[in-house]
Every structure is written in structure tokens, then in C-alpha cells.
Predict the 3D structure of the following.
Amino acid sequence: MMDHPVTEQKSLRVETDGEVGLIALDNQPVNALGQAVRQGLLDAVAELNANDAVKVIAIYGEGKMLSGGADIREFGKTPQPPGLPDVLNGIEGSAKPVVAVIHGVAFGGGLELALSAHARVGLPGARVGLPEVTLGLLPGAGGTQRLPRLIPLDSAIEIITSGRHVPVAEAVELGLVDWLAEGTPREAAIKAARDVLSGALPTRRTGEISIKPDEAVLNAAREKLAKKRPALAAPLKCVDAIAASGLPIAEGLKAERRLFLELMDSPDRQGLIHAFQAERMVKHIPESAAQPRPVESAGVIGGGTMGVGIATALLQAGIPVTLIEMDPNHAKTAHERIVKNLDGGVKRGKMSAETRDQRVAMLTAETGLEHLSQVDVVIEAVFEDMKVKTGIFRDLDRICKPGAVLGTNTSYLDVNEIAAATSRPQDVIGLHFFSPAHIMRLLEVVVADKTAPDVVATAFAMAGKMKKVAVRSGVCDGFIGNRILAHYRMVADYMLLDGASFEQIDRALEDFGFAMGPFAVGDLAGLDIGWATRKRKAPTRPAEERYVRIADRICEQGWFGRKTGRGYYLYDDPKSRTPNPDAVAIVDAERAAEGISSRTFSDDEIVARYMTAMISEAARVVEEGIAHRPVDVDAVFLFGYGFPRHLGGPLNYADRIGAAALVERIEGYAKEDPHYWQVPKLLRELAQSGRSFADLNKE
Ligand code: T1G
């Protein structure tokens, strides 16, 4: 029952209920702790402390969660007082006891808010975490000082340096949350406040607890983090901040603030936050307003690696699947492989055993397309051959119910041509999954000329259910990712032919931040894939294009990489990566055949040429409207190609070099090869106007 609605404002509500003062955050969708919320909290705590009727204060969140933390959109801008540390110190310093209710999530500043309260209760299913390190930061509002005061040091270090989400039950076990409550957040807040008054719920100011962090534990953490690649600054600074929790709280908070501000200025913070925002910005597309069609059931055609992966991903999202294969044996094998994938999810703790059983029961593997007559979505994942695909789509046109979405998983074929094989091109769309499709998050949604807006919206809604990062792409050879990949792979081959070893090129790019260099990636994926693409493109390859035959020569030996035990490298010992001497000999022979006298490349030059090729083709992809914005290209490479997350994606990284410098670089390279190295129109425009790719994201 509400006694007095005292102050009501957009982002926070204060009321009293007898002796209980209630503060409700209400800044949807994530109760981000923006300026209005911070000011509201400070005023509310003061107001309730001045209200003699109030004996205890409880803070909770409206909507889905307590709070998702500081407002990320404020970063990099002039800080608006009051700062969050001051607000939280005000809560901890409250003369009257303060209890916080955690429901949904309490992440970053949201958890720090709870830590500054004098007690905490959690609702079932809640999660807590300090993910600042994943944004290139550290908990900057007391998290590094208060968490080690409440839970064991090694747990505090692990939670802060990993940024992982901690289930509320574990948080209770650790002593981070006092106990599990029930009811709505408001009910739990009133109950917890009353428990404080009765003495059932003990309270204490976290900052008044004194601890002596064990140096050996801190140093062990530092050693472990120093070995990580790429070596980012944030995790180590987290440990330095935690080390200061042995000081009195006011001094420890000063140390934390200094370290936080150092990270706030770092390029890693800019890149990681751009990556965080990219994952969300790409959901906003021209077709966002269209109403998605329901997806209650799906059909997958083809039980190969892709079909099995896609079917697994659909089942993981709770979407029943009918998988069609050519004959009962293939259907059975596909069924077994999908079940094995689901069992893997249980083993990795991603899925409970009962969920796994439910999902297996949602899988049917059949022969005959007529089984797909009632499904809402079909995803074709058969051999990459236009004749085969158009034949299947003609059959689907006859069999599937009106309004069924007809998707193709082709990785480069013309979706317009596939759509034209049906009488319903508006229902046809490209759904390019990345292998393994039940693990890789990227999904390129390829919009053909006649694809209906609600079909695009359906693809994005389905991708959301599958926890995929869907990126809208136009129709071209290779869509966004593979089209750009072809370019920087070609430049890597040019450098190989001109004198850099494939080992040096791989290492240079791994030192830059890629998990694997291009030649190692080729060996992993299978060199025959690129070989098939090059053969397909051969008839239309311009005569003046420089062509490197090294990869073809390696493939002609049947060396396709890991799957054949050798490619650029030897794989007798799966742990090592030894250059294949026969591949080195092929490189030497090709240089000799081309009359090339090898030159040396510095690692910096290797990275510069490789990245300039990636950026140039990415600029063309944006210029042609194949990608909706630069950030869409960034998302493709962050979520599908292992681009270093702290660099934020190819075009975010391009802004660090600057368009003018990139134009200059390309003009320099063009002196050696004017056909390949041409300045993209968009890049020249940005250079001339002084604008950036980031500016284009805002348009
Ligand atoms: N600030 C501003 N906007 C945010 C936000 C935040 N912290 N979190 C999410 N949004 C936006 C998001 O961009 C999207 O916008 C919408 O809210 C819904 O998000 C001092 C410095 C909380 C688990 O790192 O993990 O605190 O696309 O789609 O799936 O120490 O958002 O609709 O325009 O993700 O329900 C630390 C980040 C900040 C948490 C909700 N906090 N957020 O997931 O919704 S740094 C984080 C999340 C900090 C202090 C430090 C998730 C979520 P739009 P969504 P969701």
C-alpha cells in the first residue's frame, strides 16, 4: 500500500510505506544509471534520511532488472555530475540502513549500487556481474573496493577480471548477496526492509570492513593475465585496483578512480564499446518497422555440416525442426549428429539434460520435401550449385504453405536468381550462417531485390531468438564478409610471393590481435574451399589482375590443411604449427617462375597492407549499399571473422588511421600495382570532407 507518492520523475520513484522508504529505478529498458537517475538517487537518499517517519530505505528496479550499469552512451563525453562513485558513497554513508533488491541483472554500476547498500537480497533467476573489463574498463564506482570486502579475494579477482555473469545462487554462496527473496521486486524490497527493522537481516557498511589482500594471490593473477593474448591493459589494472582494497575505503576509491580514468582514455575502451554497440546497432534496419511473420516451426534441407549446425541452432532456440535428407541413412546420420551437438551443449553446461530431451523430441529427420508443407521457415543448405538450388526452390514453391519464408544458406550464389525460380520471390531471402552454425554468432541476412520487408523482419526476429548477430546484406558475390575476405587474402598472397614468409604474415597478424593469421585460418577451414572459389572466379578474372598460384599448387598436391594433415603447415602434432617444407619449396618455385627476387617486409608493413586491403573493399561494400552502414561491416568481422574485438571492427579501426592517410597509402601501393590498388570513391570523399566512418554510422 503506498502512503505518500513523494517524488515522481521519469527515471526514479520515491515513496514511503510506513517506516519503509522505497526508491524504485525506472529508466527502461535497462535502468541505466544516467545523470537523472544518479541525481534522483542522491536526492532520494537525502530526502528519506530527513523524513523522521522513515527508519529503513530499500532500493529496487522496475522492469526487467535492477540495473544494467552506468549509461554507456555517456562515455567519452564530458562527465555530468553527480558522478556515480559519489552517489554510491552517499548510499553507503546513509545514516539509515539501506537494502537493495537484485532482480533480472545487476551489472557494472548496477551491482556497485547494490554493493554500496548495507544488505542485498536477490530474486530467483537474477544474475550479477562486473563486465566493465569487457568494455576495456574496470568497475569505477567502488566495485574493486567493496567486492573483495564481501567475498574471497580469488573469487573477487576472477569475477572482476573475467566480467562473467554470476547466477544469484552463487552470489549468495559467496556472500555477495545475503539471501534469496521472493515476490515482485517491490514486495521483496518491503519485506527486506522489514527484516532489517526486525534484525532478521543484518546490515553493515561494506566500506567499513577492512581486509588485507594477499600479495601472492594478486601476483598469481597478474602472471596469469600477462600470458593472455592480446594483452589488454584493463584486466591488469583491475588487479591493481583490487590491491588497493587493503587501504581505507576513501583512499582505495581514489586509486580505483585514477586507474579507471586511465582506461577511460584508452583506445581499447573505444573499440570494445563500439563492439558492444555494434551488436545492437545492426538490429536497426530499414525493415525494422515491419511485423515479423510467426516462426513456430522450421525445415532444414541438407544434413551436411551446415544443415546439421543450422538445425542444432534452431533447436537450441526452441524452434522445432524437420530436417530433409536424400535418403533414410543420411537422414538418420544427420539426426545423430544433431543430437550429439545438443549433448555437447549439456556437457558444456549451456543446456540442462531435460531441455536437451525436449529439444531432441522437437527434431524430425525425413526424406521428401513434402514434409515441409506446413513449416513457417525453410532453410536450404545443400551443395553450392545453382541448378540444384533452383530445382529445390521450384519444388518448395509448389509444396510450402503460402507465407512460408524460403531461406537459402548459400555463401555466395545470387539470391535473386534463386528467388526467380519461384512464383513468390518476395518470400525468398539469404540466410548465410557461419560454420559451426550452432556456435558462430554471425548471420548475414541477404536481402534480394524482391524480398518483402516482413520477411527481412522475420529473419531478424528468428536470429534474435537464436542469439545470433544478424547483419543485413545486399546481393553480391560473397555478400559482406567473404567478398572482403577475398581481397585481404589476395594481398596476403601478394606479400607471400614478394618475399614475406607465410609464417611471418600469420605471426604479424596474430600479434596485431587476430586469433589466427590468414594461412593458418586457410589450413583450418580447408584450402580446398578457397581453391573452388578461385576456380569459379577464373573465367571472369580480369587479365590485368595479378594472380598468385601458390595456394593452387599446394592444393594440387592434395594438401588442404589440417584435414589432410598438411597444408601451409604440418599437423602431425596437433599442438604445434610447423611450416610445411614442401609448401615453402612451392613458394620459392613460384617466386622463381615469376622472376621475383624476394624482398623483406616488416611486420608493420604486413599489417598495414593487409588492413588497407580489408578497409578498401569494406568501403566499397558500404558505398554500394551492400552493407547498410560501416558498423554493419564491423559487426560482420567481429562476430564472424575473429576480428580483434578491442579494435572494434575494420572500419572503426580505419578511423584511427584516418581516411586521408589511407588514401595516401593506397596511392603509394598503386605505384607497384595500379590495377589492384585503387582508391575507393567513398574513402576519397571522406578524406576530402574530413569525415569518418563513425560519422556515416550516425546518418
Ligand atoms: N548503457 C546504455 N545503454 C545500454 C546499456 C548501458 N549500460 N546496456 C544496454 N543498453 C541499451 C542497448 O544498447 C539497447 O539499446 C537496449 O539498452 C537494450 O539492450 C561505473 C563504468 C543489461 C544484460 O556492460 O549486458 O557500469 O539497441 O538489447 O538483451 O563501474 O544490455 O535498444 O537502442 O542488450 O535485455 C557496465 C551492458 C556498464 C552491461 C540487457 N554494464 N548491457 O540485455 O537488452 S559500465 C554493462 C548488457 C559501468 C561502472 C561502469 C545488456 C543487458 P537499443 P539489450 P537485453
Summary: Residues 75 and 264 are 8 Å apart (CA to CA). The two ends are 48 Å apart (CA to CA). The chain has a mean pLDDT of 95.
